[in-house]
Amino acid sequence: MNEISSMTEAKPIKTPTLPDAQTVTQVKHYTDRLFSFRCTRPASLRFRSGEFVMIGLMGAPDEKTGKQKPLLRAYSIASPSWDEELEFYSIKVQDGPLTSRLQHINVGDEVILRPKPVGTLVHDALLPGKRIWFFATGTGFAPFASLLREPQTYTDYDEVIITHTCREAGELTYGAEIIESLKTDELLNEVIGDGFWKKIKYYPTTTREESPKMGRITDLMRSGEAFTDLGVEPICPKNDRAMICGNLAFNIELKEMLEGYGLEEGANSEPKTYVVEKAFLD
Ligand code: A2P
């Protein structure tokens, strides 16, 4: 047997794959601080729109032992529960342990995904109501990108209001594209019917760069301007339900405001009138 044929007959060496590895199928960069990506979905993964999972990459080898451990962070799944792929929306922190590397992933690369979805931004954690408010800052839009593409959102509520506050106008692009895509979303149009998206009111605002609407959503609600702009009655516990996802200071401030309107914090085990979750920060 010559050398070439012995090489072809030899068993291929299997490249070791990461534990719980999924393959990246799409990467989109929005600003120097934000990007989104899509990856394959494990066939066994079931989740409720709005939940999060742990995702990440293999960490650097330990200096003493040489062993590598996965570096994982909680990420809201931005795609809806029916989607055959998974989508994530991420910040890029230049010296962040995970996102300094995650921001450089390409199509075909592998990410680690622990298939144990959890979270409180789910319909099950809220009592029935007429109108639902989704309040986001920055990457806190991610769970709402999932819920906005979830048919249950429109069967459960007559009206859906999504507010998104960011520092700069470019940081609104991901959310604006999701909202735009709803108009032609085949599944939603088929399940809910034509014009379901007219139930949606989208209220994007910026705080540090000129845009059509400026200011923090909290200030705009306190002054009443947000309700006037949206043409809706202020929040009341009888009709309104809310989900909050943003930075810590925002979550705390808005929680207090919602409680001032008479809403109460719910959980999976005890559904009430609002729920809150912190957006991912590296
Ligand atoms: P601001 O620019 O006035 O701080 P970040 O990128 O730091 O997470 O912030 C995202 C957005 O959330 C920014 O527009 C920021 O406004 C806003 N924000 C931060 N803290 C609060 C808060 N307590 N209430 C409302 N909005 C907030």
What would you note in describing this structure?
Its EC number is 1.18.1.2. It comes from Lentibacter algarum. It is an enzyme of class 1 (oxidoreductase). Its cofactor is FAD. The chain is an alpha/beta fold and 282 residues long. It has two domains: 21-118, Elongation Factor Tu (Ef-tu), domain 3 (Beta Barrel); 123-278, Nucleotide-binding domain of ferredoxin-NADP reductase (FNR) module (Rossmann fold, 3-Layer(aba) Sandwich), CATH 3.40.50.80. Helices cover 23% and strands 29% of the residues. The longest helix has 13 residues, at 248-260. The model is unreliable at 1-9 (pLDDT under 50). The structure holds adenosine-2'-5'-diphosphate. Adenosine-2'-5'-diphosphate binds at residues 137-138, 165-167, 207-208, 216, 218, 247, 249-250, 253.
- The chain-level structural class is alpha/beta
Separate helix tally = 9
Distance between the termini: 56 Å
Order of helices and strands: HEEEEEHEEHHEHHEHHEHE
CATH class call of the largest domain: Alpha Beta
EC number: 1.18.1.2
Protein name: ferredoxin--NADP(+) reductase
Organism: Lentibacter algarum
GO biological process, one term: cellular response to oxidative stress
Topology:
Blueprint: H1 3-9, E1 21-31, E2 34-40, E3 52-58, E4 70-76, E5 85-91, H2 99-102, E6 110-118, E7 131-137, H3 142-147, H4 151-156, E8 159-166, H5 173-182, H6 186-191, E9 200-206, H7 217-222, H8 225-230, E10 240-246, H9 248-260, E11 274-278
Parallel strand pairs: 7-8, 7-10, 8-9, 10-11
Antiparallel strand pairs: 1-2, 1-6, 2-5, 3-4, 3-6
The structure holds adenosine-2'-5'-diphosphate.
